[in-house]
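hey so i finaly got around to running the thing on Nucleoside triphosphate pyrophosphohydrolase from Litoreibacter arenae DSM 19593. pasting the sequence first so u can double check i didnt mess up the copy paste, my clipboard has been acting weird all day
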Amino acid sequence: MPDLVYDATQPMPRLIEIMRRLRDPDTGCPWDIEQDFASIAPYTIEEAYEVADAIERGDWAELEGELGDLLLQTVYHTQMGTEAGLFDFASVANAISDKMIARHPHVFGSESRDKSAEQQVADWEQIKAAERADKAQGGTLDGVAIGLPALLRALKLQKRAARVGFDWPSTEEVLDKIEEECRELVEARDALTHSEIEEEYGDLLFVMANLGRHLNLDPEAALRAANAKFTRRFEAVEAKLHELGKTPAQSNLSEMDALWDAVKAEEKP
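ok and heres what it spat out for the 3d tokens, dont ask me to read them lol
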């Protein structure tokens, strides 16, 4: 009988078996054996970001590999769950299948599909609220994962609060709050402790996320785009310095700022 580890005709059982063998306490990999849920969690987050990065760059060949890396994370956690008697791959797969069926009664049930995307979102939120109630998560903010990236979690917290009416009615009030938080940050910088300055800075970031929501923008996507723009422009500045026989360390702020403005001008259509 062929070894399942080398049987490419059974891709999912093959991967599960590979993970089981890696974790085998007698014959497995010492590094893999030492890991636990907490030590693997950062890798899981990292792999999810690498999937998003491949999608953003439109690199579909790389996306295939990154999706495999992310799938491995699920298999890793389920193997540890199996060892601890908590759950296994089958129960995890069935749990998400049951959830998708329950959350799509217009596809798998008797509800009509003839409704707007907005109505489908509203129905989805009602179903999720009922699920939280079943888990004794009665609070408005219950269930918003603590481990989310801070900017994304801020957005989700604000959306939850807005659903029960705790929200500014327009962007004007949000902009006023941003001005207020900016003033408080400046005052803190000049008079308060480092931890108090950090608190005021966090308040400003939180309100900036709220502004994005009011403008129907994804703060995370907007910041990623700003990061990409900064990277592109700074690399262009470095290239111009290279043409002058210099590195950034051999230049100064005035020269690099002028080159930055030149790069911006070249980008304009």
